[in-house]
Amino acid sequence: xxxxxxxxxxxxxxxxxxxxxxWYLQRAAKYRSTDNAYVNADMVQVASRLNGQVIAVHxxxxxxxxxxxxxxxxxxxxxxxxxxxxxxxxxxxEQSERQDMTDVSASDAAVxxxxxxxxxxxxxxxxxxxxxxxxxxSRQAEDDTQAxxxxxxxxxxxxxxxxxxxxxxxxRIGDATPAVLAARAxxxxxxxxxxxTHVVASRAGWIVNHTLVPGTSVVAYMPLFALVxxxxxxxxxxxxxxxxxGIQPGQPAVIxxxxxxxxxxxxxxxxxxxxxxxxxxxxxxQNATGNWVKVTQRIPIRIRFTGEDTLLPFxxxxxxxxxxxxxx
Length: 328
Fold this sequence. Notes:
The chain is an alpha+beta fold. Helices cover 41% and strands 23% of the residues.
């Protein structure tokens, strides 16, 4: 190769290097990429609200279920018995309420009778006083009539006390007595428990980590398996703290998932975490030590899928690469 040709080749190489470097700098200023990214989603932990034995399982691992679809059944027999007992206690409470109302009516009648007896005693006492003044009756007879008045007054007071006591038992809160309301609440709770023996999906999604089989004894609120909610996928992209400048919520992003090569997905920056991943770990780093070494930290950024990509069934935990466009 002659000298002029070598010079031309050198110039072309230099120009290509300059163009490549300029392209790289422009791209670096316009885009921020990281391969420290993983697919995530809303995970619903499925559990029974009751203690009992599983008698039927209606789903399998990886199955797509819809909201309200049956997942499994807990033995309802003990809860059917509890509901029957609660209904019986409610009937007893209502019967006692009716008996208490009868007692109130009887006590009210007793008050009226005692008041009538008192009125008669007062009339007899006034008549006796008149006859004594006319010397038709002795003083002893007048004393006897006064004694009957005092007895009648005591009977009236006693009848009023019994009436007040009877009314306490029929004091109402709304349309029923406290005892009846408590019995109704017990029936409602027993009916709710019986309903909860049939466990259904709270939302649509895929069944994961499923090992439940009939015959298993379950404990209330102990997770049994999980449900990956459909339409809830996002990517957690862990950018270095030195790469965050210019990244803001709402910026478009491209997501390349390793297990689905050649198909970029669209997303948008949703949330920039307020702390590093290490800050929220079980054992956070203690930087105030004598052997401290500075390490660049990473800040989690949530990238939300957009458009039709939000409905795709991604795999939770899958590796990905995220590129955020920080400038138009």
